[in-house]
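=== Structure Prediction Worksheet ===
Name of assembly: unnamed complex
Input type: mixed (protein and possibly other molecules)
Chain count: two
Listed entries:
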Amino acid sequence: MWKTIVKKEILENILSYRFPLFGLIAMVLIPLGMYVSQLDYAKRVRDHDEQVRLASEAASSLNIQDVMAGTVSIKGFRRPALLSVYTRGFEGTLPRYYEFTQEGTKPGESSSGEESILSVQGKVDFVFIVQMVLSLVALLFASDVIAGEKEAGTLRAMLSNRLPRDAILAGKIAGGYAALWAPFAGAFLVGLLLLVLGAFPVFGGDTPARILVVFLAASVFLLAYFTLGTMISASSSKTRTALVAILLVWAFFQLIMPKLSDMIAALVHPVRTETQVSLEKSLLAGSLGMETAKELGRQFDLIFGSAPKGTANDEKSPERIKWDALKAGIEQGAKERRAQQLGAIDETYRQQKRRQQNLAVNLSLVSPSAAFARLVADVCGTGELERTKYAEAVQAHARTLDGALFSKVKRTLMIHAGGGTSLGFSAEPVDFKALPQFKIAPASLADVFKANWKSLLSLLFWLVAPFAAAYIRFTKYDVR
Amino acid sequence: MTDANPILKADDLSKRYEDGVLAVDHLNLSIYPGEVYCLLGANGAGKTTTINLFLNFIPPTTGTCYIKGIDVNKDPLEAKKHVAFVSENVMLYGNFTARQNLDFFAKLGGKTDLSKNDYYQVMRRVSLQEKAFDQRVKNFSKGMRQKLGISIAIIKDAPAILLDEPTSGLDPKAATEFLEIMAELKTEGKAILMSTHDIFRAKEIGDRVGIMKEGRLVMERTRQELQYEDLVKIYIDYMKSEPLAI
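=== Predicted Assembly ===
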């Protein structure tokens, strides 16, 4: 019996003004969004390739003197994510590259610097269209599913037959959603076709699978919103009441909750800014460096103060041998202290930040919209997972470069008792051509699902809970 | 007639709403195959509530409704197999054609193997204009909608038909056509319960006429009895009488 309802719902929607209107909206917005995103992606890739080329040219002329002079800056670039055409996510805010120097790593500029103020609302990409436009359309489509039939009196006519209410509800959701899904799926395919025609590499690696996941996630997201709208409709006796409730719910889930969760998390778990942490680290590093320089100066003066002139340059003299051993010990100790104390600052910051972010994420997942956006951003390589992988890759590369390059040159600064300073260098040979390349380990789809179990759970909840609530409301719905 | 089992039966039926209003008060009613029972009464007398109780749209406070011997409250789906319903303003899907509406409701009524011609035949039977068969019903007049509503009831072929003020707002010609169809259905053995304000047509079509006031069935007359009595006078007398102590 529910199939009859499904067919009727589809036919009724097709015959109404809503179907062509929504079809038009979807067919214009989604392919257009994809096309613009594709152009934007192509531009970012060109910029990236050019920057990589320039950096590799600069790296090819490096020599040990540059390292000794402390002017070496090796850049590790992040290639724009291929599927950022579906969602920009953190793409605009992630640094395009990191600079690796003897003093540490620092982020390069991000592409957000080139964007207009209007882009803070979000780029009109596929996820934005689904989140902000189609979710509202799904809710509006569902607004009169029950209340509208009651107002029209057709619900009484239906229920005067041998028709269980659960069959009506299931049929109306399935049919109404099918009428919504078909134009959406069509528009998605047209968008995909545009990518293919634009020679976009959609068929490489696991890209087709990822695109399929994006499509399925969007389909589930829209179904969740449609079911939510049905639940509201089944709780209202008039379509107008349902519409007001729907707009409030939409605003809460789309606009308020995701932003509110960040604010609440910042209030509950306040964290210092990255600039403050960076400043603290700089001050500490300077202070440690100063202490080490003073200690080295003091020891140097003690060993070579009464020694004949030139003893310090005689590698075989007992003073020099003693000095070399002492210096190595002091420098090693300083290095370890520096690593330990700076690492502790970093670790504390990371822990605090993680706690704040976890709270923000958990709160935001109350909204199906946030769950959808997080999942798809990770699938497309522009989400939290990519940011983490990028940060991990930067840390790993910094360690590798330190071993392969920066630690080969030792700069020894000494501050003597009288206030005088001296600077010494020692260097080991470096094979610049064999320096490791910066790489970000890509997150597999399995990693994405593992990292997004909460988002998946949230989406599942928003599929099941509104249906259950709609069912309960509808079984007690006054059809008179 | 009373030897047969009633198709529609209200047994000590009462309905008190949440706001305390007693809409139906200990109603006892039996309608037999081939019988038209007209329920008269002012607005709020309990006529529509009675129909809503038969359709299980609301649960009774006490008492039981039976359709073909099936307790409506206990087995509403099975009971609804045996009843068709036509409301005052026949509600249809405006963007559907007459045939599409008929097809949808016929399927809901369990008739899944009907052809286009079957639908056309039923619509011809209720004198719906041929050109309207495949027109969208949103532009139909009330009379046309009512005819289509009757078509839906006919095509379901249920032994009981509930009509909630079906002639309200119809022009005299349409109302007469409607009563002719009712008479045909009666001869086919349908048990028809019709709530109405229309005293004249109730007298014309009803085998029995009951008057409801404040939820109670205060008077009942057969067609034979009404030959010697003035139904209008009876009705007005009952309406004027003192409120009932409820």
